[in-house]
Amino acid sequence: MPNPLLDDRGLSFILYDVLDAGALARWPHFADHGRETFDAWIDLCRRFARDVLFPSYRPLDAEPPVLRDGAVQVHPLLREIWPRLRELGVISAARPFDAGGQQLPATIALAANLYLQAGNCAAYGFAGLTSGAAHLVEAFGSPALRDRWLAPMHEGACTGTMALTEPQAGSSLADVRVRATPAGEHFLLSGSKIFISGGDHDLTPNVVHMVLARVDGAPPGTKGVSLFLVPKLRPTADGGLEPNDVRVPGLIHKIGWRGLPSVILALGESGDCRGWLVGEPGRGLAHMFQMMNEARIMIGANGVATASVAYLESLAYAQERPQGRPLTDRDPLSPQVPIVGHADVRRMLLRQKAIVEGGLALVLLAALQADRASHAPSPEARHRAQLLLDLLTPVAKTFPAEKGFESNALALQIHGGYGYSSEYLVEAWLRDQKLNSIHEGTTGIQGLDLLGRKVVAEGGGALRVLGEEIEAACARADRAGVDPAWTAGLRGATAEVGALTMELAGRGLAGDPGAMLLHSSDFLELFSTVVVAWTWMLQAAAAREGLSAGRGSPDLLHGKLAAAAYWLRFELPRIGPLVAACREGEDSYARARPEWF
Amino acid sequence: MPNPLLDDRGLSFILYDVLDAGALARWPHFADHGRETFDAWIDLCRRFARDVLFPSYRPLDAEPPVLRDGAVQVHPLLREIWPRLRELGVISAARPFDAGGQQLPATIALAANLYLQAGNCAAYGFAGLTSGAAHLVEAFGSPALRDRWLAPMHEGACTGTMALTEPQAGSSLADVRVRATPAGEHFLLSGSKIFISGGDHDLTPNVVHMVLARVDGAPPGTKGVSLFLVPKLRPTADGGLEPNDVRVPGLIHKIGWRGLPSVILALGESGDCRGWLVGEPGRGLAHMFQMMNEARIMIGANGVATASVAYLESLAYAQERPQGRPLTDRDPLSPQVPIVGHADVRRMLLRQKAIVEGGLALVLLAALQADRASHAPSPEARHRAQLLLDLLTPVAKTFPAEKGFESNALALQIHGGYGYSSEYLVEAWLRDQKLNSIHEGTTGIQGLDLLGRKVVAEGGGALRVLGEEIEAACARADRAGVDPAWTAGLRGATAEVGALTMELAGRGLAGDPGAMLLHSSDFLELFSTVVVAWTWMLQAAAAREGLSAGRGSPDLLHGKLAAAAYWLRFELPRIGPLVAACREGEDSYARARPEWF
Fold first, then answer.
1. What is the DSSP string of B20-32?
2. Does A554 touch chain B if contact means CB atoms closer than 8 Å?
3. Average pLDDT rounded to a whole number, residues A365-383
């Protein structure tokens, strides 16, 4: 049986039994929808992922794009796939009807995209980037820009990119140097961008770059950064297109996501690269954060998808591969058992399951907040959801990347020596996963964002909302008959994190941001562990509800309880020493001088 | 400056200031040696590693061996390297003078080999395997076999392999099926082996396989397994060589160690594959364990070496790459700082340093026990050292592999987007490292070995020796003026692990090995954390001694104290929840049924 990419029943359980995503259709914006249309869309993408994308995964990984005569050529299979992805309507699924979209909730779009990402993250990448870039144009572009570019982007007649990074400005976007010189209704851009995913290819004639640049005379730092739309081919007066002085001097040889080109862009080498301002001058970074935040959730989803496909691969292997005997069986003539029979293999499987399905619930929860923030009936509910979404974003971006990498390594480990060969796919997903802790803000950046901004925003308002949500989950679990030790553990951990946050914030308020943020990565790790424990409490509650009502597959529900037990009893207590280190201000690396290494 | 592979001063500090390896020369067996000859040997290998091996690393990784007309062709550079490795005398450095060796301590040989492994693990692999195979012949071979094979193996005129694994018998060696049929003074072997490193190549005409097989009529299980020497070319009556019916039907495409071929061997397809019994029939696995245990320490050393070279690469990058500003610097016009200036980057560097140098001390400590076990003057000291060596072997094999993988991932992470490209080497070392948790017994196997055998051996005798050694280290640290909180922490953790072991052993004695071994991998992790804390306590003590005496580089010694602080204050407390889970018998994966996944 081919790899299913995601567990269909498990996804449905989280969407409907855990998160009640069906209720979204009660709001006016989604009134044309219901569980039937949701499921139809997910099923369409699922089948496309299984039938078209996944079979192309290995060839795309094996033969990455090439740069020939200044133009990038992608894998020939992609040229067959792209028209079908366009036709499917993936790019604009969550956009409004009047923008040519299907007005689906972000939650449902993400659920469907998970299959596409699990099937072939590189192929999906073109669509995801185009979607985010189009949303920037939709949100901040002038009417003229929207008229000109939205339709072809939504239709996939051209693709989009986000062009932020420069050789000297990666994590430090305040140091963006690309210049934009006013020239009438457009600007002339000059400078270099690097690591631009989908920055050139031969799938469509045109590529629309969303570029951060600095208008001549703008102040230094982030306040001087503006956002520009820079097409590869620009419109001519007679309605045609002409080249726009965007050159591709180099291609990065990535170790994963190998179907998606990552390029260096040289803008305006001949002094004639035209860009159009998007939104307000000096607000480029703020605008770009709309796309960045969407991309962070998308990266989180990618981490989940990449861990999921590998988990399911290792599960099938463990169920088939005979090796060894139970500890109590000393008879060498008895048949060997499938390795899933060994406790340590089940440990590796259950840890993967807990990471994959905890991560899945996490990214869906984040997407659900995005839907609520935009479309919930009351302003209070919208505000509350926005706070929670902002808080969850660094967690949803990082947890699947970091723990997903561990999960992918376990999938390889379960395959033993076979897993170490490129005849098996598990090693490729391990390579794919590693990018997710780097792009769209490294794990270090996410830790600073969470502790330095998100948990302290609005006087800790987001943290209060999270606490209320966790308490509601525990109350639901109590009602459903979940082990009271589990809810007590989560309530205790939540209180502990709240107290720790107050204490750290106090250090910041006292004028010592260094002391506050010293352990920001450790804080992100322990905070994520608690957030994922919340998702497992929700899943445990829904599983108990299902078992009590005799609804759903008992195997599925018992599996949910086993993974919840693992996370709540084994992983959650591991935050203790991390909390202590943060609180005590353990300072070994703060004090270490560069010359001591 | 090119990558130094290992920190020379740090190695010397551990060898002489921490472990007093110079004292080995006081024993009769090493009487011809002294620190000067030790250092001369290390320096010779170091220079070879830097000048010859490391420059060949990238080409060997880029162009793995090919199988052509049934024969494996390695990278052409290897054919230049091999004669020089032979000439250097790496294979037999630790063997006695009368076996053509230099009679160096295993500790010193390992220290020198670390450079070779860090420079190019695949190239070193041929020598390491040959060394281990020759030692098997030396220890268990008949005089005729020794006469015939030892000299060419020690000289590197032919290479050796260990041929254990079969498609159906990887971790489960009881299921070895290759048959050996008596045929006079030799046996006729038939069957398949897989994943045989160095199993064929064109560096030397001949390859000597040490093969596990089952003599016709032997009992099932491990007791029926014998050890055979099976050369690729076998001796003829007239003193020549002829092919031995050993075919290579396939080559594994490994994702790392790519210069070292891993092959499938087909033995006796034409009914004429001759093998010679080594040691006693039915004792094959016991004999092979000599090579396996040596190989496990060698794999541990490889894990350290692979993490070391990547750590030093990321350290140099962090000291050079400007990006961002200190938290308190809000002036975008101030110059960017090297990323080593950011606390989170120093966290990633210090964690790597603690893993690399803790692992380094660990594998050297293990090798030192091997020297003591063979050559210490008193039988008591030899026995004590053997107990400790047996106990340390699964730890020395696994810690560098598992934590080294995390360390290698951090080295990549520090490089940001650049680290994700194959233009930089950090990704290649990450691939290399992953093999170490698989070959020579997976991490799961090591956990069962540690908890199921080693800690309970001789009524817990090995554990008592370890406890005494740790106490001695703490006493030394107390005398040297190390922070008493650190020694208190380590003493407490050691007592906790002792108590836990007793409790788990009790479950085994009560007839429930499943309950005893349930968390064996977690036990291995927490046990390793304590053992590495011991190595850091020793290093902290030696650092304080050096600072008090005004001896050694203050930067080096302060760096040692910073890494010791990190391990003892941050990592060591993290065993708490693991100990609790083992004790409570947290049973989520014990109870999970295969159909629940």
1. -GGGGGGSGGGTT
2. no
3. 98
